[in-house]
């Protein structure tokens, strides 16, 4: 996933390569669904810089991040 690639070495470069490859193999009108824990402003920047994506953003569960841990 994009989140796991962004945790490694050369993360930004590798993420860009991944997104470009997804763009290449998608059929015309194909859809790539990105589910991420990352902040929208960072993920949107990657998407906008890599290809000519048409982006629809849906933020789910902001309250989830505020939940206390079970530890």
UniProtKB/TrEMBL annotation:
Q: Which residues form a coiled coil?
A: none
Q: What keywords does the record list, in alphabetical order?
A: Methyltransferase, Transferase
State any GO BP term from the record.
Answer: methylation
InterPro entries cross-referenced by the UniProt entry = SAM-dependent_MTases_sf
GO MF terms here are: methyltransferase activity
- The name of this protein is Methyltransferase-like protein 13-like
UniProt organism field? Trifolium medium
